[in-house]
């Protein structure tokens, strides 16, 4: 039976991938060791998601507690399923640029060396398998901050005649910028994925994501801002906005829309492909706009304050240009915007979060 290997299978994108491809008729092998709990604490643990997936798919899903830094362990998994693996979805990561500075070796080991282990195992045991990598827009460092942004009442914005007004594409350089250590480790992984695609003619793709989100997101202060923002609104926990007057802009893509992009690429893969992916012009917001939306949906105001200092390497404005991917895969599109996403986050977690208020 065709098999999909999903790393970080208990996380937001990993768990959505598991559900999507099981329902599509695949067997799924999930690699998940709940490093998120180590990174961000017990509230960010993926254990409950992994347990729920195992209960829902007892026959179709096999979850293994494998650390992707374990070269031999990764090789064993791929060797066991050689000949059956059609797709590898690599979502496991240390995802916070703040956390990376506290332990650079772990950050680089997970993000860069772990990716190398997976690519090499794929090359040896399943070279025809599609390799999908969740990269990040942080590979561009802080170069987006040099854009000539206009300050509007609730957001920063590019002039309509600017080449990137519709979204930033992959022509933006990744050089001569401050990335954060997280951005560096992900850029190293991104280049590895491209190189294995081009050098070994393997079907690989880097999806350089903006904010990836959805109702299953275990958001924390350092990562997953829409989920954490809604949680704080509902529970009354104070929230700190880091710099830029709260007018920094992010595009946000629902996990289901991202998995649909994975599936579209897998149906017609290419070697060494790279795309910026996010909500684009269809799904984006500033912090101030997101705070307002959370208040409308939750029916209560967020207790928030503004910190003067922005995070190192943080973007003032990011909207992804989705047109290159849409041109290559015209059947794909964004189906859910920021309001839809926040409503789902609220409704999915209402009983649990309101009880903590």
Average pLDDT over all residues: 93
Q: Structural class, please?
A: alpha/beta
Radius of gyration: 19 Å
Q: How would you sum up the global shape?
A: globular
Beta percentage is 15-25%
**Helix run count:** 12
Number of strands: 15
What is the helical fraction, as a range of percent?
40-55%
What is the straight-line distance between the termini? 47 Å
- Poorly predicted parts: none
**Strand line-up across the major sheet:** 3-2-1-4-5-8-12
Major sheet attributes: 7 strands, parallel
Order of helices and strands: EHEHHEHEHHEEEHEEHEEHEEHEEHH
Topology:
Layout: E1 3-7, H1 12-23, E2 27-31, H2 35-40, H3 47-56, E3 61-64, H4 71-80, E4 85-90, H5 97-102, H6 104-125, E5 130-136, E6 150-151, E7 156-157, H7 181-199, E8 204-209, E9 211-213, H8 225-235, E10 239-242, E11 249-254, H9 255-267, E12 273-277, E13 284-286, H10 287-298, E14 304-307, E15 317-318, H11 323-328, H12 338-354
Helix pairs in contact: 1-9, 4-6, 6-7, 8-10, 8-12, 10-12
